[in-house]
Amino acid sequence: MEAIVADLDTRRHPFHVAIENWQHDLNIGSIVRSANAFLAAEVHIVGKRRWNRRGAMVTDRYQHVRHHDDVAAFVSWAQAEGLPVIAIDNVNGSVPVDRAALPEACVLLFGQEGPGLSPEALAAASGVVEITQYGSTRSINAASAAAVIMYEWCRRWA
């Protein structure tokens, strides 16, 4: 396992994935799995430390996962690393992903299924990106949205 992680570390992309965990969202494991598939530098769990690892399908063993107690601690870390935080949420003022800036080195911040990102998380972001949708639902599944955004980052930069 250590050899696999070491090999992945030589090829990881410079984007990070963060998930705000304030309602113990079951999608977190699936987002970790996608982060591994798209070779994110690291996954950040913001808020509650516990998350459902079942959806990760053991990929969390190969993916660096860091915990931050709250949004303020996460933002402090991102600022210290010089990484802009790009919020992903379909709120007023968000920019469709096909027209949005996705910096090469950044943190893609995802919210909870249903309520999305907290007001504090949205306020901390340097940009807010949404996925254009055409049907009657207000939003797509959080894990699906994360995979779409990570794919788009890879399409542009990988």
How does this structure look, described?
By secondary structure, this protein is of the alpha/beta class. It has one domain: Alpha/beta knot (3-Layer(aba) Sandwich), CATH 3.40.1280. It contains five helices and seven strands, in the order H-E-H-E-E-H-E-E-E-H-E-H. The protein has a seven-stranded parallel sheet with strand order 3-2-1-6-4-7-5, sandwiched between helices. Helix 2 links the parallel strand 1 and strand 2. Helix 2 runs parallel beside helix 5. The protein is globular. Keywords: Methyltransferase, Transferase. It comes from Microbacterium trichothecenolyticum. This is tRNA G18 (Ribose-2'-O)-methylase SpoU.
CATH architectural label: 3-Layer(aba) Sandwich
What is the H-and-E element order? HEHEEHEEEHEH
Q: Pairing-aware structural class of the strands and helices? A: alpha/beta
How much strand content do the residues show? 15-25%
Terminal-residue CA separation = 24 Å
Q: What is the average per-residue confidence, as pLDDT, rounded to a whole number? A: 94
* CATH topology label: Alpha/beta knot
Order of strands in the sheet with the most strands? 3-2-1-6-4-7-5
- Gross morphology: globular
Low-confidence stretches: none
The total number of structural domains is 1
Organism: Microbacterium trichothecenolyticum
Protein name: tRNA G18 (Ribose-2'-O)-methylase SpoU
InterPro entries: Alpha/beta_knot_MTases, rRNA_Methyltransferase, SpoU_MeTrfase, tRNA_m1G_MTases_N
Domain tRNA/rRNA methyltransferase SpoU type: 15-151
